[in-house]
Specification:
Elements (H helix, E strand, L loop, with lengths): L8 E3 L6 E3 L13 H11 L4 H8 L3 H13 L5 H5 L3 E10 L3 E8 L5 E6 L4 H12 L6 E4 L3 H10 L4 E4 L1 H22 L3 H6 L3 H5 L7 H13 L1 H13 L8 H16 L4 H12 L1 H5 L9 H16 L6 H9 L10
Parallel strand pairs: 3-6, 6-7
Antiparallel strand pairs: 1-2, 3-4, 4-5
């Protein structure tokens, strides 16, 4: 239904300006009513832009403009930022060719409080500079061992506790173990090469999750290859680190593990152990602040669903607004 309204124009004799009267049913220069705009906003929370456009008869660009105004109203406020205490940081892939967005999540509420482009120091620097200006009393930040993130945080909060996430540490160990398996497969010949082939899953999976037949195959592999045997045992031992109740016990266990890894004589393992030793303080900070990026990883999965449902986003700013409002959306229907 279309309504044609004649808007009256007024002339001010004092200032010489001409003005049009304001309508209660619609904003100035808008071809849709306030009621329709509210309806479109509600639909955009559970439907795609294309579906809303088809349902209402509005052009998709009009629907997107309405939704963009809705999303901007729900950005984190200053009062929200001042309540921050524990943060989680991770990146999500934006497009191919290594384009990323950096996410900062309030670990107490699960709300995304910052989205930055890239995964370098600049992607976080402006956010922590703002927090410092607001005098936010942050206590700890959970992140992976990516140096630019730590550098950006330290530049503005030099005394804050950095907690390196257990999931990322074990994932990095798994990548090292798989690279070692590939190296051993390339080096060996004959029957030993056939035994190593197809054992990636056996080495990376937790021992408690393997079937009886898989355990027998794994035992055969470890019995015949010293390097994989040592690396696998140290992987299973490292998983025990985060089960300790006190920092003192964990610290003794960790440095004993580092000593074993450095004495293993396996190049890739020694290199990883050296890196973990450099980040020992951040790894052991978990026992003062038991936080992780698990919540951020869950949000990453939701973002991937949004991106897949929309077949990607060309408008990065609009995509960032969608991410900011993720805690208000039913992402399964986006």
């Amino acid at each position: 239904m279309f309504i044609v309204v004649k808007v009256r124009r007024f002339y001010c004799e004092q200032c010489g300006r001409r003005r049009f009267e304001d309508l209660l049913i619609a904003e100035r220069k808008k071809h849709y009513t306030r009621a329709l705009e509210r309806y479109v906003r509600e639909l955009c929370m559970v439907m795609t832009l294309r579906d809303v456009s088809r349902h209402t008869g509005l052009h998709w660009a009009t629907v997107k403009a309405i939704d963009r105004r809705r999303l901007r109203k729900n950005l984190p406020s200053v009062s929200c930022l001042r309540r921050l205490r524990y943060l989680g940081i991770d990146e999500v892939s934006l497009k191919r060719r290594h384009r990323y967005l950096t996410l900062v999540v309030d670990l107490r509420t699960g709300r995304i409080v910052y989205v930055g482009e890239g995964r370098g120091e600049r992607s976080l620097s402006s956010f922590f500079k703002r927090l410092r200006r607001l005098k936010v009393p942050l206590k700890a930040v959970s992140l992976d061992m990516w140096r630019p993130y730590a550098k950006a945080i330290r530049a503005h909060f030099p005394h804050i506790a950095l907690v390196y996430d257990a999931f990322h540490i074990l994932a990095e160990y798994s990548r090292m173990l798989d690279a070692l398996r590939t190296q051993e497969y390339t080096r060996l010949k004959g029957p030993m090469k056939k035994i190593i082939k197809g054992t990636r899953f056996l080495l990376l999976q937790g021992q408690e999750k393997l079937s009886i037949s898989a355990k027998k195959k794994l035992q055969t592999l470890l019995r015949l290859n010293r390097n994989l045997f040592i690396a696998y045992l140290l992987k299973e031992e490292l998983r025990r680190l985060w089960r300790f109740q006190s920092r003192e016990e964990a610290e003794r266990f960790f440095f004993d593990w580092i000593r074993k890894a450095l004495n293993s004589g396996i190049g890739k393992l020694v290199k990883l152990a050296t890196r973990l030793l450099r980040h020992a303080e951040g790894i052991l900070n978990y026992f003062r602040y038991p936080i992780s990026t698990a919540m951020v990883e869950g949000i990453n999965n939701k973002i991937k669903v949004i991106k897949r449902k929309a077949y990607g986003y060309r408008d990065v700013e609009y995509f960032k607004l969608k991410i900011y409002n993720l805690h208000l959306s039913r992402y399964s229907l986006l």
